[in-house]
Amino acid sequence: MRVFLSYRRTDGGYAGRLHDALVVALGATNVFQDVAAITPGADFTVAVDDALDRCDAVIGLIGPTWGAATSADGVARLWQDDDFVRFELARALTRGVPVIPVLVGGARLPAPSDLPADVQPLAHRQAVVLRDETWRRDVDDLLRTLEGKHDDMTSTRRRGRVIAVAAALAVLLIAIGAWRLTSSNGGGGGTTAGLIECNVPNAAEFMATGHAQGGAAWNNLVLDNHPTVVVSEKPTDSSPAGALVFAVKAAEWRQVEPRAWLVVLHTTMKNATSAAEYHEDFRYDSLVVAQRRFVPSCFSPQPEIVVPRTVGDALVGFTSRCRPGGYIQLILAEDQGRISVTNRSLEPSNC
Fold it and tell me: Which residues make beta-bridge pairs with 255?
């Protein structure tokens, strides 16, 4: 399964996020993104035509300003003959490649009258919507749509390769399953996808100061000195080696049920790599209280994608069956590191 990703630079953040998700599910060689796939000095037209000949589907990523982007002279890019987005989509539509409009950032599918004649068929294609709050589930739906498009092309264009396509689909389903498991379990701990936001009074202030003002009996945890861990990132084709630095800046807890306590950590992730990195719940495996592990129950990132040489904040909540106290640890995904939230000289509390 090969996918061609068409997008505007103004939607580069969404494109990068979707590209990474598709690469996890389909493999790096099966996702064509011009900035990564076209080498300097190569003929753009030839490269695009070659990619379209080999791809099974084209994703037309449409953000809020997709149709309103203008050149330096104020003319809408979409209506100019040299617009690369128009060129890619027109070529795909002419060649009969399945084209899927993918709407991000609250964008809507343009009407035919809003499009040049050579890309007007795009307005009649069924669109897929990717929402920030349900991103993973929506990407799952998109992958199933791509799967369906692949099946359609198999029946009409590749009838002589049924066995090979079946094998490819089996690999795809395994990859999708592994991706879902990694996304939902953090690679080994049990974090669930789509966690609710952490309900902390004055959350913005808590992120800034580590203190929740108001609410029902919030209590501070006294942190260990420098509760930090460095996670080395392996080099890839597009990024050299680097590191992500995780830290706990503050922690508070309160009782939510007779035998349940909510512990909320203010964490940070410093991106010391050369590529954007997700700061999502899958980064955190569990919190150890009284020598018991508890998986995240709420998560609030700010922002979700951390660009190089910047720091992202997040509230990570854990519902513990043991009253918070004593030595508490935060375990990162795949046991990549452990942070002593409280002083490691303390004995674990009883439960």
Answer: 261
CA distance linking residue 170 with residue 163, whole number of Å? 11
Mean per-residue pLDDT for 163-187?
A: 39
Site of tokens 């375990």: 331
Are 24 and 72 in contact, with CB atoms under 8 Å apart? no
**Stretch 170-180: mean pLDDT:** 39
Domain extent at residue 299: 203-340
Whether residues 56 and 91 share a domain: the answer is: yes
Query: Cβ(26)–Cβ(3) under 8 Å?
Result: yes
8 A C-beta contact, residue 66 and residue 77: no
The angle that helices 12-26 and 162-185 make with each other, rounded to 10 degrees, is: 120
In a domain, 190, yes or no: no
pLDDT in tens, 77-109: 899 888 889 988 998 998 888 899 999 999 999
Q: Are residues 288 and 225 in the same domain?
A: yes
Which amino acid, residue 178? A
Residue 89 CB neighbour total at 10 angstroms:
25
The mean pLDDT of the chain is 79
Strand order in the sheet with 284-289: 292-294, 284-289, 328-332, 338-340
